[in-house]
């Protein structure tokens, strides 16, 4: 079992013919992802050779869906073209759009997120500025390395790409049902709460690991949700305990203002909801092992 992405998922890549798109399409194919096409209106009708596998290029997301039955798109286009690419995916009503691009203007994200909601949330957006998601042994949509963990019973949701990889590696002997990198921009599509809800409902996820970071109140809102709706054990980590106030750190959304958004405040909110919170990724992994051991 997995959330959002399974071995049945049929994936297209918007921007597949560009250098980043080609590089990561090759990596996704190598990890078993069922990539059925790419889009580039200027190269429609062509194919791209990936180590002997010919992947067709379509003019639009809608055409790709009609010809292949695609239900997932991974978006590798420059930041200035991202809004148009996501809008195209939403208007085609593809069920899942994974937006890898970083540096997307917050106004652009707000615009396409509002469009998705106005159209009834038929398209789940993950990102932008995220590593994507992986259901180990089944499918990989994005840039997460596929060889650092195995299938298992931990669900991972994280704002940080690199911390996603580290936690996957720390707990690689236990394995994961799905790992979802939601991104750290001020506005994102899928949130911690969305992933927590999905993992709570997934019968093959026994433990949830949640990685947050300084800035905003997403972790505090997630803590409230956990308190009310999550019965599975949750282990957390919040990056940024030593971050200076008022300075943007890493992600655009990672900025502390006064007592709001600090790692300590987030840790306290999560612990009040019964979440065990590690001070380091390694300590968090130890807490996860202990929780699974019962």
TrEMBL record:
Pathway: Carbohydrate metabolism; tricarboxylic acid cycle; succinate from succinyl-CoA (ligase route): step 1/1. Its EC number is 6.2.1.5. GO terms for cellular component: cytosol; succinate-CoA ligase complex (ADP-forming). The active site is at 251 (tele-phosphohistidine intermediate). The keyword Ligase applies. Residues 4-104 form the CoA-binding domain. Substrate binds at residue 165. It catalyses: succinate + ATP + CoA = succinyl-CoA + ADP + phosphate; GTP + succinate + CoA = succinyl-CoA + GDP + phosphate. PROSITE patterns: SUCCINYL_COA_LIG_1, SUCCINYL_COA_LIG_2. One of its GO terms (biological process) is tricarboxylic acid cycle. Pfam families: CoA_binding, Ligase_CoA. One of its GO terms (molecular function) is succinate-CoA ligase (ADP-forming) activity. Succinyl-CoA synthetase functions in the citric acid cycle (TCA), coupling the hydrolysis of succinyl-CoA to the synthesis of either ATP or GTP and thus represents the only step of substrate-level phosphorylation in the TCA. The alpha subunit of the enzyme binds the substrates coenzyme A and phosphate, while succinate binding and nucleotide specificity is provided by the beta subunit. HAMAP family: Succ_CoA_alpha. Belongs to the succinate/malate CoA ligase alpha subunit family. This is Succinate--CoA ligase [ADP-forming] subunit alpha.
